[in-house]
TrEMBL record:
Entry superkingdom: Bacteria
Record keywords, A-Z: Membrane, Transmembrane, Transmembrane helix
Transmembrane segment boundaries: 26-45, 51-75, 87-109, 115-137
SUPFAM superfamilies, sorted: MFS general substrate transporter
InterPro entries cross-referenced by the UniProt entry: MFS_trans_sf (IPR036259)
Name assigned to this protein: MFS transporter
Keyword Nuclease: no
Length: 144
């Protein structure tokens, strides 16, 4: 319940903030929050920090979904007005496909350890951040 409140609160707060600082900056903040939370979560699991040591960074990882999950698709579809439905469908399929591929990996080590979960979360969050900087930020620096 606390994590779902984090998603809702982060989404609402950053929706208002996006009007002032821009949606792309909000996306960067969300991706950085997710990546830092993912690295911290993995570290806490690795040192066996206990329940609260895991729940706090997990809260930040999950809350960042409220930021990234709204701003990323919105920014991705901005330039596809005539094909917005197809773009939204492609984004949805990609999300579900990636989730379906990652889910079995989390269970590889069994249900007695959170290590694979922390590893997958960290790698996916860092991967998303790298994709942003490699594809989006880099493309904006190129002259048109």
């Amino acid at each position: 319940a606390v994590n779902s409140l984090g998603i809702i609160t982060a989404g609402q707060v950053f929706a208002r903030v996006a009007a002032k600082i821009g949606e792309e900056k909000v996306l960067r903040i969300g991706l950085l929050t997710a990546a830092l939370g993912g690295v911290t979560l993995f570290f806490m699991i690795s040192i066996d920090a206990g329940l609260y040591g895991i729940l706090i960074p997990l809260f930040f990882v999950v809350s960042s979904v409220g930021i990234v999950g709204t701003s990323a698709p919105s920014l991705a579809m901005q330039h596809h007005g005539a094909h917005a439905g197809s773009a939204a469908a492609l984004i949805g399929v990609a999300q579900m496909l990636l989730g379906a591929c990652m889910t079995p990996l989390v269970g590889l080590a069994g249900s007695q350890t959170a290590f694979p979960m922390g590893l997958i979360i960290m790698l996916c969050d860092l991967g998303a951040l790298c994709c942003y900087f490699f594809f989006v930020a880099r493309a904006k620096k190129r002259p048109e």
